[in-house]
Every structure is written in structure tokens, then in C-alpha cells.
Amino acid sequence: MRYCFSTIVRLMPAVFFGLSLLIFSPEVLAKSSTASLSVDFSKNQTAEQQTNLLRTSDGISVFRQGDQAFFLASAQDIPVVNAFPFLTVAPVVEVQNYDPSLVKIQIRFSKDGLTWDPWLEATAFEDGIQAPTLFIGNLFYLDTTFTKFQYMVLFSNSVQSVTPVKVKNLRFDFFSPGQVQPLSPGLIYQRPMPGNEGTACSCPMPGVATRTEWNCPDGQNPSCPSPEFSATTHLIVHHSAGSNTSTNWAATVLSIWNFHVNTNGWCDIGYNYVIDPDGVIYEGRGGGADVKGAHFCANNSGAMGVCMLGSFESSTPTSAALESLRKLLAWKSCDSDLNPLISTFHASTGKNLPVISGHRDGCATACPGDAFYAIFPSLRVSVDTALSACQGVSSLEDEFGLLGFRMYPNPGTEVVRVSWDQQTAVKGSVMLTNVQGSVLYQQNKTLTPGVSEHQIDVRGLASGLYVLHVQAGATTVRKQLIVRH
User: Fold this and answer.
1) Domain residues of the chain, as ranges?
2) 31-176 CATH fold
3) pLDDT tens digits, residue range 238-261?
4) What kind of fold does domain 185-390 have according to CATH?
5) Preceding omega of 317 cis (within 30 degrees of 0)
6) What pTM does this model have?
7) Does domain 401-483 have CATH number 2.70.50.60?
């Protein structure tokens, strides 16, 4: 096709504008990037200021016991350029006889090398394993306008032990997510719940942003070469302990993947799901809800991990985030036949834990934050309400008048009683199954008006978890029953 000269002239501004976008737009140019700065203290590292330090082939330690000691580095260039939409940095310390009360890592940032933000103390990455020879700090989230950073190794003036703390190597891992499409709840379509065939579960899986949608480098493929799977028995809730604000939460999820994989050394992001303050649920570790993650005190079998983005020591997650968490936990409770109101034995930890637990229920950690953990009782009730609603309990009560439904005692040891106030006559049944669905007891009966009570002898059953089914017409209500001898 031919164009006259005047047409070409008219098109030139548009062409120039398009090229300028490609050349100058950070959104177009920005790609994810990583860079690290390493320090070997066994060598003669230059300091801006240092005092009371002993340097050996094992690193630096306190020279005079009981006196303050520190190493203050000179200003360093942040080794990532053209960062977008934010920067993260995580400190990794190789240390002998690590004791958080005796040595701390502090870091501060500057946009011009002249004016500095306040010192920030590195806190331990509690979802990982802190060994006596290794400290991994949580992510710091930074504005892209910062160009300089400075760090300090600060030893306590408390008397060191017979084997003093020695800091040998220090590494700072920087990361820029690059161009990641921000996601909103309206963009995440409803996906059918996998693995629901052949069960009585009717709770839908909420919409989930896929790994591809948050730019996971491995896409939908699991990052772990040989993912492990286990039947979910407990739902573990975390917080990320990071910023409560972000311009791009999908990029934040990518930064956590990079931190877990490239800094902490795992094969994939540790959590099964991540939820942002806007209520978007992100698919985490590749392989699905029952894939074994890395988030629960090295006891991850049977534990599905959900991380709420933000820090919740003094505030709770947003209502949108809590609503998405409620839907996700109700779906998984239905999918795995869990009772969100009870505690059951978690084989990997060897503890009796609430089905919906916080990270701190499994080991010594502040996660998921004091303010958030305080509302876990109401969270469990709201999940149970959602579970009952999608399992047809409300319609059963409304349509057939099955009011005041009770099952007691629970746990049961000898005889379990089921009672209700039946307002209308309807054909139904009472049935008890194990968690695999095998029928252990069943009696068909007409549910007559008035208060009814049914008794089930459980003395011949092994201690464990069972499911009671009360069927009225075409609708069934299910309740978890624990038998304990």
C-alpha cells in the first residue's frame, strides 16, 4: 500500500509518541532485577567508624567484654538501577553462636547521600528456620528514589558468652519486581473448585489470581521439581510482617516469591495462598491447596498456609481481606471435611491445634500479629457460618423447620445424642461416616413435628474424626464428630 508524503507527515507525531513510550516509559522498560552486596568481615573491611572490635578469620566480635562495640559501614550505592515499582532488600548474616539479644543489624537509606532516613532494625524472618549460624531478616520495602544505603553491626554491651557471637559474612539482597499488572477483585473470575466431585461439598472456591497473573517466573508450573502432597487437616494463617500499603500488591507477591526462593533458598513460595488488603486471593506454591508448603515451623504436612499481606501487631486486616479469607477457609473446610470450630491432632507438630490456627500456635513467633490473632475466635465462627450456609443448613432450617439442631457431647465417648425441634413432617435419615465417606451407621426415619432425639452408640468406634449426616428430603446437614476414648 502506498502513502503520499502528506500522510506520512501526519503520522509522524503518532509514531514519535509511540516510540517515546517505548524509550522513556518505566512501565514498559522495567523488568524484574536482582543484585546483592556481600561483605566478608574476616578480611580488612573499611569502616566509616568502628569501636571495640576483634577481627579474626571467623569474623568480627567484641574485644572488651561489657563495652559497646559496633561496625558502621560507609555509604553504599544501591546496586539496582531503574527500579520499578518499588525496591526490596533483605539482610543475610553468617554468624557463629547467633543470639538476637547480643547482636543486631541496622540499615538506613538516603536519596542523595546527605539526608538519611532513620535507622531500621532487621527482624528475623520467622517463617524460615533461624539456625545458630545464619540470620535471615525480613524484607524492607523501599521507594525507588533511594540511591544509597548504610548498615551497622551493633553488638550489645551485655557480657558475651564463653563462645561469643562472631559475624563473619553479611549480604544484602536487593530486588525490583519490574512491570507486574496490578490486580483487582473484579479482574479475578470465579473458578470452579477442583476435587469437589463425588463429595457432598457445595461451597464454591473463591476466585484466585493464578501464578501466571502475578508474574511468577515459573508460571503455572510448580517451582519445586518434585512437589510433595498431604491431606489438609489444619488451616494456618500468617501475616507477611511487611508494609500495609502498596501501589501494586501483585508485585509484592512476586517479591515474596523472590525472597523465599533466591534469599531463603526454598524451591518455591512458602504459602499456599496469599491475600492482599483489597481482597484479592493469589495462588501461592505451585501444585494446589494440598501441596506441602514451607511456612509452619518445619512441620508443614497437613497444613495449608494462607498469608495476609501486611503487619497486624496493632491493627487488623481490612474487611475485604477478611471476607476473602473467610470464603477461602470455608471452601477448604468443605473440601477437606474440616470443622473450623474445633481442635484436632496435627501429626507433624504432635500437638492438638485449632483447625484454624495462627502461625504462633505451632512455634515461638509473633505471627500473625497480636491484633489479628485476637479476632481468631470470631474468624472461626464466621467461617463456620459460611460453611453451614453453603452446605444447606439454612435452607434445611427454613424449608423443613429443623430448629435448635444439636449434637452432644462432642467429643463423644459412649453415646452421642442428636436432637432437634422439627416443625413439619419429612422423610429423612441419620447417618455416621468416617472422613473417607464409608458409612458406619445409618437409620432411615420420618422426621416428625416436635422435639426429637436420636442416640448413636460410638463405644465400638476408634478414637478419631467422623461426620454426622442428618438428611431431610433432598437436603443434608453435616457436622463433625470427634470420638475420644
Assistant:
1) 1-28, 31-176, 185-390, 401-483
2) Jelly Rolls (2.60.120)
3) 999 988 999 899 999 999 999 999
4) Lysozyme-like (3.40.80)
5) no
6) 0.76
7) no
Write out pLDDT tens, residues 40-66. 998 877 889 999 999 999 999 999 988
| Burial class of residue 376 in the structure, from the number of CB atoms within 10 Å of its CB (0-12 exposed, 13-18 middle, 19+ buried) | middle
The residue written with cell numbers 444447606 in the block is: 392
Within 280-412, residue ranges assigned H as helices are 319-335, 370-373, 376-390, 393-400
For the record, the C-alpha cell of 379 comes out as: 474468624
Sheet harboring 281-283: ordered strands across?
281-283, 273-275, 303-308, 234-239, 356-358
Query: Whole-angstrom Cα distance, residue 357 to residue 230?
Result: 18
The single-letter code of the amino acid at 108 is R
- Residue 139 C-alpha from the chain's centroid: 15
> Is residue 106 predicted with pLDDT exceeding 90?
yes
Phi, psi (degrees; rounded to nearest 5) at 371 = -65, -40
Kindly report, residue by residue over 143-197, the tens digit of the pLDDT.
999 999 999 999 988 777 778 899 999 999 999 999 999 998 876 654 544 444 3
468 backbone φψ class: left, alpha, beta (φ>0; ψ -120 to 50): beta
